[in-house]
Amino acid sequence: MGNCMDTTARVDHSVNNGAYPSKVTSKTSLSSVPSTLKSNSSRSTLTLPSMKDRSELPTPRTEGEILSSSNLKAFLFSDLKNATKNFRPDSLLGEGGFGHVYKGWIDEHTLAPSKPGSGMVVAVKKLKPEGFQGHKEWLTEVNYLGQLHHKNLVKLIGYCSDGDNRLLVYEFMPKGSLENHLFRRGADPLPWAIRLKVAIGAARGLSFLHDAENQVIYRDFKASNILLDSDFNAKLSDFGLAKAGPTGDKTHVSTQVMGTHGYAAPEYIATGRLSAKADVYSFGVVLLELLTGRRALDKSKPGIEQNLVDWAKPHLGDKRRLYRVMDTKLGGQYPKKGAHAIANIALQCICNDAKMRPLMSEVLEELEQLQDSKYNMASPQVDIRKSSHTVPKSPMRIQPSPRRSLGAASPLPTYRTAKVH
């Protein structure tokens, strides 16, 4: 059995407050690793496999081409002012270092602004006029979400590029973010079945991105970027850091390290080498948040408990110890074998050796099997290597984790978000 428990750098992060689904988080550099690509690196064509969900448009390389070929509504700034009641505070859904998100209303057919309470509800992200980085991320969202269509990706309805104003208009997600439901004070606990449903939906979204003919790496997978509709179907939001994956025989792309502390993969932080396996690591961290009800990083906890991966990992491969890290808000109402299976999947996803992590398609298949009640009567051991797939297998390991030494912390800027009332 391989050992996935080698030393990795531990990074610090300020505790995040709950935020609206389309929360505008500040995208902060995770290290001082220099980028070997220009910040406006070229984007390859996003031609996806034939399926109901699609992305058939070629990815343009210039801003003019992106905006003209996106199939999105180009809103006037005045229209969005009207749709959000002039961006009044009572329309505010969330905020962060990247900007603010407001609730608005538009006509379902014409997409013209409508009176509050009538028409279709939308979420309007208004970026702070902070120069190139904010504009770059705005354009990246238009580029990808203007082409990618999948039931587990948030729908981008349109954009606004009016003078210095940069805005994005999304479908409204009434249940807010997964982060809100897991961590916001006073929130009703999510039952086990809903947690599994959210994990599966998010896995479908990531698998869709990774399995594209021209792969997309999400790069900012976390609880606050998983939005929930009225039926708790999960959708990925905020594509400002999305990156085209490696092509040809390349195993990674080299880029400036960006993302969120606690979720970023250790090899990416250390080297700036990005692959889809970095998303897999982040997915494993979110699985841990679903299991434990704890944040990826929480400075209010003592010692090793501040870092969820460091604290939970020694318990994940041991059926007799797993209960010690399970979310107490579940009240013990969860299938023990199912919980142990998810713990093993999470353990494989957060393996420090990226090559030992599974593909998202493999993770998705195993999670989907857990929806079958019969599974919970069977052995909880999960070894994705034994699954039959049409995609190449990645080696997997399941092994109890000893405590491991912690590397030096990487200082990062912080961000804050508004709570939803």
UniProtKB/TrEMBL annotation:
Keyword terms, alphabetized: ATP-binding, Kinase, Nucleotide-binding, Plant defense, Serine/threonine-protein kinase, Transferase
Domain of life per record: Eukaryota
Enzyme Commission number(s) of this protein: 2.7.11.1
Coiled-coil stretches: none
BP-aspect Gene Ontology terms: defense response
Keyword Isomerase: no
Biased composition (Low complexity): 21-42
Disordered, as annotated region: 1-63, 378-421
Binding site for ATP: 126
GO molecular function, one term: protein serine/threonine kinase activity
Domain Protein kinase: 87-370
Class of the enzyme per the UniProt entry, highest EC level: transferase
Family: Belongs to the protein kinase superfamily.
PANTHER family linked: OS01G0588500 PROTEIN-RELATED
UniProt-recorded name of the protein: non-specific serine/threonine protein kinase
Organism in which the protein naturally occurs: Oryza brachyantha (malo sina)
